[in-house]
Amino acid sequence: MERLQKIIAASGYTSRRKAEELIKNGHVYVNGEKVTELGTKVKGDDEITIDGVQLKKEDKVYYLLNKPSGYVSTVDDDLNRKKVVDLIETNKRIYPIGRLDYDTTGLLLLTNDGDLANILMHPSHKVAKTYVAKLNKIITKEDLLTIKNGLMIDNILCKPVNVRLRKNKQKSKYSTVEITLEEGRNHIVKNIFSTLGYDVKKLNRIKYDFLELDNLGVGEYRELTIKEVKKLYQNK
Ligand code: URA
Fold it and tell me: Which of 51, 77, 86, 101 is an active site residue?
C-alpha cells in the first residue's frame, strides 16, 4: 500500500505537489470512488482515474529470492532494518508473498500482483512449504512421531504433510529435520519444535509449492517464468 499522491507522481502523470492538489480538488477516483483525502493508501492494482483518464497500471512482476538471514520480510520497518525488497532491483512496488522470520533463510516470492498474493496466502489454498530446521540437540524418535501425528500449537492442531529426519550429528549433538507444512502461521516451525523443548538454531525454506531454490545462492534472485506463474494460479 502506498500513498495515492506518490503513486500518481510515480506514474509520471504529474509532480507530487500537483497530485495533492488534484486529490484535494476532487479530480481523482480510486476504483470508481472519489478520493479527496491526502493520506489515502492504495494498492498497486487499484484503478486510479484523474479527470476520467485511467493511470496506466504497473506491469506484473514475480521474483523468487533466496532470502539471507538479517532481512525483514516487510516493505516498511520501524526499526530501520534491512528489507527483502531492497535486494531486488526494480522500480515496481513489490512485496513478499507471506513472511520468513528475520533470521530465516530461503525461498521467498515477491510480486506486485495482489491477486496472486491473496490466492497464495489464503489459508484455504494450502500451499505446501518445506523447511529444513537445525535443532539445538538430537531429536528423539518419540518427538518426531509426535510431530508427524500432529500437535496443538496455540490451541490449533498442526499436522505437517511430511516430517523426516535428515541427519543426527552425534558428535556435535544436533539434528536436522525436514518438515513440510500447508499452513502459514507466523513462527510455526519454531513453535512446533519449542513446544517439545527444542530450539531451532537455523531455518531454511527449500520449497514453496512446486518451486525450489535450485542453484540460487543466498541473496540471489530470479524472475519466475510465465509458465511458473500460470502454474501457481492453476494449482489453486
Ligand atoms: N516458521 C518459522 O518459525 N519461521 C519462519 O520464518 C517460517 C516458518
Answer: 101
